Amino acid sequence: MRTRTLTASAAAVTVALGTVTAVVANQNGGGGGTTPVAAPTPTPAGGATTPAEKGAAPGDFNGDGYADIADIADGNLYGAVKGRRAAGFVTVVYGGPKGASAARHQIVTNPDGARRGDLFGHTLASADLDHDGRADLVVGQAGASGRVIYGGARGLTARTAVLPGGSFGRVAAGDLDGNGVADLVTTGSRDIRLYLNPGAEPGAPQVSGLPLPSLDQDAPGGPEDDSIRPLVGDFDGDRRTDLLLVHSYRANRGVPHSNLVLRRGTGGGLGPAETFAQPANQAIDSETARTGDVNGDGRTDLVYPVTTRPGDAEAFAVRLGAASGFTDPHHVALNGFGPAAEGAHHGGGLAVGDTDGDGRAEIAVGLGRGEGGGTVLLVRGTGSGPSTGSFQLLGQDGEGVPGTDEKDDRFGQGLAFRDTDGDRRADLVVGVPGENGGEGRLYVFPGTAKGGLTTKGVANINTPALGIAGDSAFLGGDLLF
């Protein structure tokens, strides 16, 4: 197993955990010195854990009640790569009472050793699979089986388990059989694999076929453009977790198409597949489709950029969850939010989260426009859906935002809502992967009780602070959501 020692500040110490290198802040306060922290004793893969009374929230790897940030550097997103990124690694930044801090971080590499082209971490998900009160991280890699990295009192540990069944494209976690413990669903090239109650020793998955339309073999890219994103939530409001498969593909010689396949949670497991056709010329970008309760009715809604032509999206849409499945899509044009958004198109990530704790989630959309490095549009959630009259625009050239807006910075390429300071209001993590020629940067904008986000106390995290300078990490390009 590969280890790497990172340079910590005077108020931090380094803990090596096999393939996971952690920098843990001094827990005792005070000035100057450091406090020795013993590394957790690794438990063999499949080893028993003590069940917790309540499982941890996804992404809380040390179970302290503060959400953590995980970012992928898989060597496959932006072309030329160097250093560790050619094999892939995952960067974790831990939350705390004052929010996310670079002083508390981990770099996770392949337990089997780094090999160029592994794309370790090309997809991520999180849940407390062994129900020990600390969230675990599910990591995919190209050409090999995925792996669970288990959480512990000081963060992710050296205890891991392999997910049998081979490599997968995307992964999602949720309680799909209604027993109170998280399950996993992964997408193969033409199948869906369901890992029920994987716990500390995942067993062989159940494999179910998925009704997919025939693909146009003559289309540009052909079947390679076929994409399935699994998402979980209570879309029909019956208090059971459902599985939604967002299927995007090209047919009719390259025209983008998509549909939704819903399998509802029932008392006996997942129900039969129900297909919801997407209107013509309104294809869903499955890679950036996200879920959340935008109107506060207790049902999970689907939010996504609308692709009206290949490679472009000038609007996002919301399909509200309903007892019947979904409402018709409601479109919101991206250029309708003042002069700063004129000519804007979807040029980055998308995230859904409740920034003010009112039960109605906001929508963050990364915008590309002109020669700048990117802008993020935040649209408030209301009882009727997204508001076009209450919004916020964030950029590196904005007041209170450290840094400079530069071409190709890609501010907002990665977006995720995480409650890093534990105040029950979602903070917005903004990735800037093009910063400094592909080094990347993370910003964390705190949520506020009055709605929206604030630049007061914004976290500004660069690669030198995380010990990955020079690795061409493109930090913030693809975040755990």
Main sheet attributes: strand count, strand direction, barrel closure: 5 strands, antiparallel
> What is the 3D form?
globular
Structural class: mainly beta
| Number of DSSP helical runs | 2
Give the strand line-up of the largest sheet: 1-2-5-4-3
Give Rg in angstroms.
21 Å
Detail the poorly predicted runs.
1-48, 76-81, 213-224
Mean pLDDT: 80
Instruction: Say how many strands there are.
Output: 32
* Proportion of strand residues: 35-45%
Straight-line N-to-C gap: 28 Å
Helix content: under 10%
What does this structure look like?
This protein is mainly β and 481 residues long. The chain is 2% helix and 39% strand. The protein contains two helices and 32 strands. The chain has helices at residues 435-438, 463-466; strands at 12-17, 20-25, 69-73, 89-93, 105-108, 123-127, 136-141, 144-152, 155-162, 171-174, 183-187, 191-195, 206-209, 227-233, 242-251, 255-266, 269-277, 283-284, 290-292, 301-307, 315-319, 321-322, 325-326, 330-333, 345-353, 362-368, 375-382, 385-394, 414-418, 427-431, 441-445, 459-462. It starts with 11 loop residues before the first strand and ends in a 15-residue tail after the last helix. Mean pLDDT is 80; it is low at 1-48, 76-81 and 213-224. This is Integrin-like protein.
